[in-house]
Amino acid sequence: MAALGREARDARELGREAAQKLDTELTRRERELTASPEERMDATLGEIAASDQEFDELSRTVGQPRSDAPADTPPHVNDREGPEGDARSGVT
Questions:
Q1: Does residue 81 belong to any structural domain of this protein?
Q2: 7 lies in a domain?
Q3: Whole domain around residue 32: which residue ranges?
Q4: Has residue 27 been placed in a domain?
Q5: For the chain, which end, N or C, has fewer CB atoms within 10 Å of the first or last residue's CB respectively?
Q6: Residue 23 has what pLDDT?
Q7: How far apart are CA 86 and CA 83, in angstroms?
Q8: How far is CA 24 from CA 3, 8, 10, 27, 83, in A?
Q9: Is residue 72 a part of any domain in this protein?
Q10: Please, are residues 77 and 69 in contact by the beta-carbon 8 Å criterion?
């Protein structure tokens, strides 16, 4: 019987969390719909800045040698370009 009580509490909590997420999303969308052009531009610029920051963080991570690579790994395996040149652009 205690297990059913815990499951009921968990289900209620899950329902509250889902309702909160939906309410937050609805509020955000309502704000977007009623925003002035200036507010929309500010929001777009903020999203771009956040994306740029995330991209920069990923770029720094990709540019670093893998810390888990074995010591005898050939250098080009940890580099951004292979021994033939930059394989991503097709330049050899």
A1: no
A2: yes
A3: 1-49
A4: yes
A5: N
A6: 97
A7: 8
A8: 31, 24, 21, 5, 50
A9: no
A10: yes
Number of Cα atoms under 13 Å in the Cβ half of residue 50: 6
Q: What is the model's pTM?
A: 0.43
User: Rounded to whole angstroms, how far apart are CA atoms 73 and 65?
Assistant: 11
The total domain count for the chain is: 1
The total of other beta-carbon atoms located within 10 Å of residue 61's CB is 8
How far CA 68 is from CA of 58, 61, 75, 77, in Å, comes to 18, 13, 13, 12
Q: How far apart are CA 77 and CA 92, in angstroms?
A: 16
Q: Distances in Å between the alpha carbon of 33 and those of 20, 29, 47, 50, 56?
A: 20, 6, 17, 21, 31
Amino acid letter, 84: E
The token pair that represents 55 in the structure block: 């991209």
